[in-house]
Model the fold of this input.
Amino acid sequence: MSPLASQTDDFAQWYLDVVLQADLADYSDVKGCIIFKPYGYAIWEMMQADLNRRMKEHDVQNAYFPLLIPESIINKEKDHIEGFAPECAVVTHGGGKELAEKLYIRPTSETIIYSTFSKWIKSHRDLPLKINQWANVVRWEMRTRPFLRTTEFLWQEGHTVHATEEEADEMAAQALSMYADFDHETLAIPVMTGKKPDHDKFAGADYTLTTEALAKDGKAIQAGTSHMLGQGFAKAYDIKFLDAQGKSQIPFITSWGVSTRLIGTVIVVHGDEKGLRLPPNIAPIQVVIVPIYKTDHERDSVLEACEALKTKWTGVRIKLDDRSDKSPGFKFHEWELKGVPLRVEMGPKDLAAQSITYVRRDTGEKQQMLSASADSVFIQSLLSEIQGSLFRQAQMHMQEHTFTCETFEDMNNYLSNVGGFVWAPWDGLRETADRIKSVTKATIRLVDTEPRDMTGKKDVLSGNPAVKMALFAKAY
Done:
């Protein structure tokens, strides 16, 4: 196992080293695509299970729609296709013949799903309609990085249809809140939440809401988005319903999603010089037990004690690493690299003292305790402490790297030399945002949605009267 690049000296290479050496993914023969290895996919499965539970609390049902979208369908919403056209992959031949109509490999599924919804929705009794699908999508990316940005990636995309604008607004807000809670409670990641500026909203949407996390290298990463699509897609795909009075009405639609980018987000938010640090709530292995012995006699007694611990600790995802061809030191290093939250060591001295030795991945703290006291309740409590500890560490990093500036000089200094989030007055013009990006390479991640007195505040670059506070950051 090769040494990891230094997180401090070369964060980008450190990230790639962790992805490969922690057995999360491998490169494929298709440029820009990755192979999810079992350990990496297991993390995604943990995320899926948690999100499925949360979505079902909002009465969202899972379904599945085709991968291929006819050109005539995708072209019905002009703003949408214009926004995605540069990233689309198109199938022109099938069965050895040129197709009569091109088929787009879904970059997102609004078009094919809403074409179907027009058949399903006839009456106000059919609403609200709340559907989610777990799927893969393809966007032809020029610069890729495993999990964070790939040509093909996995995600969930929720699509809901409502009788009124108020209900749709509420659903868009609920989806964002669901993601923020998931980030906090499951991924142990604090996030900023707010609205994207109009020039960066989802193609065809009325507005886009976002959750933004902060990596250890000071860059922002979009963790999830929720879009209020209004009536535009409903009009384009002829979705109508009869209200209680028998009048034809056009519904309001939302869509929202998160992707396997979340795996990359966990890496860049929680990882350290030793590799991954997985929050227990998504760790495929929460506890690894490493036996330590020298002789065959010691081996038998130690393994017997380790098996007893594994059986005793119910409700916890445990692995007993009983490989005989690897040294304890090798195992320690490997499981630290893979981010297992808790390591338990058991050797002859522990047996004699009727104790166990455990090491926390979040702090590196090593302690001994009587094995009789280490029951399932204690282990689960310890894992809960580790979950909370990782969140607090990430929260402190975000707080220490979030600044408010009134001048462009200060903004540029923070973005160039410190990194992180920078709140600054903005005049609301895309031209100004583009000029700031050209100098600092930072974009507006979101705009403040809280009421705030902007009297006398001026844009940090243009000097125009500011209309709102915007959160700037360099981003993945």
Remarks:
- The chain has three domains: 11-67+77-88+108-270, 285-382, 402-473.
- The domain at 11-67+77-88+108-270 is CATH 3.30.930.10 (BirA Bifunctional Protein; domain 2).
- The chain has a mean pLDDT of 96.
